[in-house]
Amino acid sequence: MAQNSGTVLLLMWVYMMYMTGVELAGMAGNYANLLFMLTLIFCGILVKPDALPGFWTFMYRVSPFTYLVGAILSTGLAGAHVRCADIELLHFDPTPGNTCKEYMKSFIQTSMGYLTNPDATEACAYCPLDTADGFLRSFGIKYEDQFQRRVHE
């Protein structure tokens, strides 16, 4: 993760350069607050892009914070392994005569999670996320796009 700190520093530095062209510090602060609130609301983290009404999807696409947040999250979280706490696990029993792995085989191939006890024949425990990449994908964020994010629909 240490190699990613330079990328995050660069992203933060570039984003903070937006208001340096305003002559009066008080006005720059007012503009920055307004722009920050608008970009925070429409960056896709508080409300996912597919949940925004039609016109506001435009705001998601033009908000610079969308790309800043996406780049920072993908730089910091991509590839990180997720380990669920006991309370986060989904518990179920497989069909009789099957192990948890056999019962969930087709689902696991298309999902983002993992079984904590794949060879068990009862009381299966499933964690919905294996890596942070699945979490990032739910927001349309990919590590490959950290410098030039595209909206994937």
Automatic annotation (TrEMBL):
ABC-2 type transporter transmembrane domain mapped to chain residues: 7-74
GO MF assignments: ABC-type transporter activity
TM helices/strands, residue ranges: 7-25, 31-47, 59-80
GO CC annotation terms, alphabetical: membrane
Lineage top rank: taxon: Eukaryota
Transmembrane helix keyword on record: yes
Pfam families: ABC2_membrane
Keyword terms, alphabetized: Membrane, Transmembrane, Transmembrane helix
Protein name: Putative Pleiotropic ABC efflux transporter of multiple drugs
Source organism of this protein record: Glarea lozoyensis (strain ATCC 74030 / MF5533)
Lineage: Eukaryota, Fungi, Dikarya, Ascomycota, Pezizomycotina
